[in-house]
Structure formats: structure tokens, C-alpha cells
From TrEMBL:
NCBIfam families noted in UniProt: aldehy_Rv0768
Stretch forming the signal peptide: none
Main EC class the enzyme belongs to: oxidoreductase
One Pfam family this sequence matches: Aldedh
UniProt domain Aldehyde dehydrogenase: residue ranges: 21-484
Name of this protein: Aldehyde dehydrogenase
Family: Belongs to the aldehyde dehydrogenase family.
GO MF terms, alphabetically ordered: oxidoreductase activity
PROSITE patterns: ALDEHYDE_DEHYDR_GLU
Keywords associated with the record: Oxidoreductase
Domain of life, per lineage: Bacteria
Tagged with keyword Oxidoreductase: yes
Enzyme Commission code: 1.2.1.-
């Protein structure tokens, strides 16, 4: 089979690839602003059918109990996707504007390969634990703990790393024995639709176990969160939408798993290589045009070395030209949409209104007639109370803030509604250790260490989310615990 964009204009409902009841909608290439094809327009009735199919598949098949079969299906899916990598790469670059460079890692190949990690967990996990015998209330009782799938999972995902986020939900949810309805973001329907097609045509995953409903209608996400047939809603997106999902899920008291926004701090201590660290921070915020929830978008540097840090960061950012994502050397591609570019440009205007200086960048690159590109931009001259230091911008924008020592750096890092990620650079391990212990975030990189991998739990403190994705912790989000007590036989 060869995947073509035209193949992606179908929903997957109950094992069948079907047209959307609402017709189709256009998919834009953010680097060229051209319509590259059509996606299926799912409606509330399609979503209703998808939820019904997932419920039936969970309640009436032994998918949730056959661990070996699920492991086999996940490996089969991994193999099938790997046989389509080049087509998927092309489509991912066209739809997401993802730099080709990143498709060798987190934008495609990494999360596809990680499906094997989930398959291994399905097989190797301790599904049953013997607690032994106790005599509560005088009755000798043998207690066993069973881990079981939660049931039907509603997965709602954003556009910035669609494969990574779709598979970070599908992988553990399926490995744990759940059935899934996936609703991807309106800007990136193809990445999910093509996975649906591969599942339908090239795997033994039974009908109804995975359903994919693409749509421009955000209300389909709310429908998933509300529907009492859904047992768990797993959401990645903005904090504002995460709160709406939690509210919608409250009536049926379903389990809620949230991966939300961030405004992470990159802390440089005064014994670090200030210029090297600042340059590294500036480079990393330009990756995928800054459209990463865990990017460190506040650079905290010693006050006495502020100018040195700014000069190094500005040099790096000025050297990164936004570019065609199909080019192998491109790091900073386009933003996903005109709406997102407007939002980022609005924040750049706000930075100036707040009294800040745009040291480099600040607008659209002059050499692009088309595409939603924004120049890497460095903001200085503000403190941490500025809105551009508090709010998530989701563009290639870095704010440099001065700190007055290690404790002050920790205070500033924590002065945020978010708590997703961060970085600490310094040479004294004791000082670095104290800063690491003080920062309230779910992941931290020390001196360039990489926290992202299939077995490493990822998630946020505070308003960056609830729960952990990836790793055993991420797998267990999709499990219930059943304690079975029976009289102990002598
Ligand atoms: P978004 O919140 O606008 O949309 C995310 C998804 O939610 C989309 O599929 C959308 O259709 C759906 N949705 C919208 N309204 C809904 C509602 N009321 N009920 C249910 N679903 C609804 O986010 P976005 O703009 O697509 O993505 C960018 C945001 O995602 C950023 O804030 C970023 O930080 C965050 N993000 C977080 C992580 C993480 O792991 N923490 C990862 C990637 C992106």
C-alpha cells in the first residue's frame, strides 16, 4: 500500500474507513499557505458512533484481557508505520510545517519506534500482585491486586507534535487494554487519519478498538469529555482548554489526564559558562519555531552578567533564519497558522508596550512572501511580572531576566502558574542540586541532559497538568486497580 494525502480524508469508526458526515475540510501547508488536500469533516453523529464502537469493543471482546495479542498488534502497527516512514515524513512536513530534521526524532521516527516500548510493557508488566494473607476482622483472607484497563479512552491532541502526542496516548492506552477514540487538532488531521488507515488495513487491531474522528469542530472534543460512555479523557493542549475539559468531564466523574502549557525557566548559575549556556537556550527555543510546550522560554541569568548573556543569545538567534521545513538544515520552520502567527506578533507588540526591547528579530522575515514565519526574537529589559514572561507565547521567542543568586533564580522560576519543565546550568553539583530541588516542575535538564524518552515520565506541576505521560507512570494512568479478597485456605 502507498499512502497518499487523498487517503487521509476518512474517519476510522468501528474498523471501517468512512467519509465524514460533514464532508471535508482543507488542509493547509503552513510553509506555503497552499491547500495541500482534504480531511474528513467528522460531526457529532460520527463522534457518537465512534464512542459507541469503542464502548462495544471494550465491553464485548477480550481485547482488554489478551495481553499477548495486544503486544503483537502494537508491534505490527510499529512495523507497518515504519514501512511508510518516507510517506509519513512528507505528509508530516507538509501538514505540520515540522522541520525535516525533527522527523528523524520526536516529530515521527521516535514515537513510531516507541510503540515497541508499549508492546514490551503489555507483555512484561506485573498485572497481578499477591498481597499474601492477613486477618482483618478476624477472617483469614488472601488478597490479590489486579491491574485492569480503565475502559474507553477519549484522546484529544494538539497540532505541534501530532505523532509524538497521538502515540504517547495510543501506545500506553492500547497496551493497557483500553479502546480509544482519537480526536486530533483541526490543523493536523492527516497525521492521525493516516494512522487510522494503517490500523484498519495493515493490522489485526479489532474493529472499534481504535477510532479516529477528524474535524474542525472543537465541540467534538467537548463531546468526548462529556460522554458518560468514555471512562478517561486524555488531553494535551492549552491550559485554558484543559480546564474546560476537566469541567466537562466532571458530570460523569471520569478520570482526567492533562498535559498542558508551560513557561519554563532556563537557569544559568554564576559559575556556568554564561555565553555558552545562553546560546544553547537561544538555539533550543527556535526549534520548530518555538512550538513546544516544554521549551525553556525564560532565560534567567546572573544580573552582573546580563549583557554578556544577551549578546550571546542575540548572536545565536540572529544566526537562525526561519526556513523551508523540507530543507535538511532548517531548525526553525513556520508557525502552524495565520492565527498562531497573529498571536505571536501580538505578544511581540505587547513586549514593547510593556517597556521591553526586541534585541533581535521582532517580525516576519523579509525574504519570505508566503508562509506563517516569524523571526527568532529576543526580549530584554523586563522583569518576571511582564505578561510576556508569564504567558505562553508558543513562538520562537525568548525573554531574558536577571537574577540575584541561586535562591532568587528559583523564586523567579517558580513565580509562574506553570510547572512543566526547565533547565539548570552550573558547575558546582551541590548548588545545582539545591536549585533542582527548589524548582517545581515535572522535568528538568541539567547542563544539557535530555529528559525525553519512552521510559521517562513527562508531565507538569501546577497548571501544566495532571498525571504523567510516557514510562511506567504513563502506562499506569490508563489502568484501574482491583483488589480481590477471598478466604485463605489453610
Ligand atoms: P488547544 O487547547 O487549542 O487544542 C487542543 C485540542 O483540544 C484540539 O484537538 C482541539 O480541537 C481540542 N479542543 C478545543 N476546545 C475544546 C474543548 N472545549 N473541549 C475539548 N477539546 C477541545 O491547543 P492547541 O492550540 O492545539 O495546542 C497548543 C497548546 O498545547 C499549547 O498551550 C501547548 O503548551 C499545549 N501543549 C502541551 C503539551 C504538553 O505535553 N504539556 C504538549 C503539546 C502542546
Amino acid at each position: 500500500m502507498t499512502l497518499r494525502p487523498a487517503d487521509s480524508s476518512a474517519l476510522l469508526v468501528d474498523g471501517k474507513l468512512i467519509p465524514g458526515s460533514g464532508g471535508t475540510f482543507e488542509v493547509l501547508n503552513p510553509a506555503t499557505e497552499e491547500v495541500v488536500g482534504l480531511a474528513a469533516q467528522g460531526t457529532a453523529s460520527d463522534m457518537d458512533a465512534a464512542i459507541g464502537a469503542a464502548r462495544r469493543a471494550f465491553d464485548t471482546t477480550d481485547w482488554s484481557r489478551d495481553h499477548a495479542f495486544r503486544a503483537r498488534c502494537l508491534r505490527q502497527l510499529c512495523d507497518a508505520l515504519q514501512s511508510h516512514l518516507e510517506e509519513l515524513r512528507e505528509i508530516t512536513i507538509a501538514e505540520v510545517g515540522a522541520p525535516a530534521l525533527l522527523t528523524s526524532g520526536p516529530q515521527l521516527e521516535g514515537p513510531v519506534a516507541d510503540l515497541r516500548y508499549w508492546a514490551d510493557l503489555a507483555e512484561g508488566y506485573s498485572w497481578e500482585t499477591d498481597l499474601g494473607t492477613a486477618t482483618p476482622m478476624g477472617i483469614a483472607t488472601r488478597r490479590r491486586v489486579f491491574k485492569e484497563a480503565v475502559g474507553v479512552v477519549g484522546a484529544i491532541t494538539p497540532w505541534n507534535f501530532p505523532h509524538q502526542i497521538n502515540f504517547a496516548k495510543l501506545g500506553p492506552a492500547l497496551a493497557a487494554g483500553n479502546t480509544v477514540v482519537l480526536k486530533p487538532a483541526p490543523d493536523t488531521p492527516w497525521c492521525a487519519a493516516l494512522v487510522g488507515k494503517v490500523i484498519a488495513e495493515e493490522t489485526d487491531i479489532p474493529p472499534g478498538v481504535v477510532n479516529v474522528v477528524t474535524s474542525t469542530d472543537h465541540r467534538l472534543g467537548a463531546q468526548l469529555a462529556e460522554d458518560p460512555r468514555v471512562d478517561l479523557v486524555s488531553f494535551t493542549g492549552s491550559t485554558a482548554t484543559g480546564k474546560a475539559v476537566m469541567r466537562a468531564a466532571a458530570d460523569s466523574l471520569k478520570r482526567v489526564f492533562l498535559e498542558l502549557g508551560g513557561k519554563s525557566a532556563f537557569i544559568v548559575l554564576d559559575d556556568a559558562d554564561i555565553a555558552g549556556a545562553s546560546s544553547y537556550a537561544a538555539f533550543s527555543v527556535c526549534m520548530h519555531a518555538g512550538q513546544g510546550c516544554a521549551l525553556t522560554t525564560r532565560l534567567l541569568v546572573p544580573r552582573a552578567r546580563y549583557d554578556e548573556a544577551v549578546a550571546a543569545a542575540a548572536r545565536t538567534m540572529a544566526g537562525i533564519r526561519p526556513g523551508d521545513p523540507t530543507e535538511p538544515g532548517t531548525v526553525c520552520g513556520p508557525l502552524i497558522s495565520a492565527r498562531q502567527r497573529d498571536r505571536v506578533e501580538g505578544y511581540l507588540r505587547l513586549a514593547v508596550e510593556e517597556g521591553g526591547t526586541l534585541v533581535t528579530g521582532g517580525g516576519r522575515p523579509a525574504d519570505f512572501g508566503r508562509g506563517f514565519f516569524v523571526e527568532p526574537t529576543l526580549i530584554t529589559g523586563l522583569d518576571n511580572s511582564a505578561r510576556v514572561a508569564q504567558e505562553e507565547i508558543f513562538g520562537p521567542v525568548l525573554v531574558v531576566l536577571p537574577h540575584d543568586g541561586d535562591d532568587d533564580a528559583v523564586r523567579i522560576a517558580n513565580e509562574s502558574p506553570y510547572g512543566l519543565s526547565g533547565a539548570v546550568w552550573g558547575t558546582d553539583p551541590d548548588r545545582v542540586g539545591r536549585v533542582v530541588a527548589g524548582v517545581r516542575t515535572g522535568t528538568l535538564s541539567v547542563n544539557g541532559g535530555v529528559w525525553y524518552s519512552a521510559d521517562a515520565p513527562f508531565g507538569g506541576y501546577k497548571q501544566s497538568g495532571i498525571g504523567r505521560e510516557m514510562g511506567v507512570a504513563g502506562f499506569e494512568e490508563y489502568l484501574e486497580t482491583k483488589l480481590v479478597a477471598a478466604p485463605a485456605t489453610a
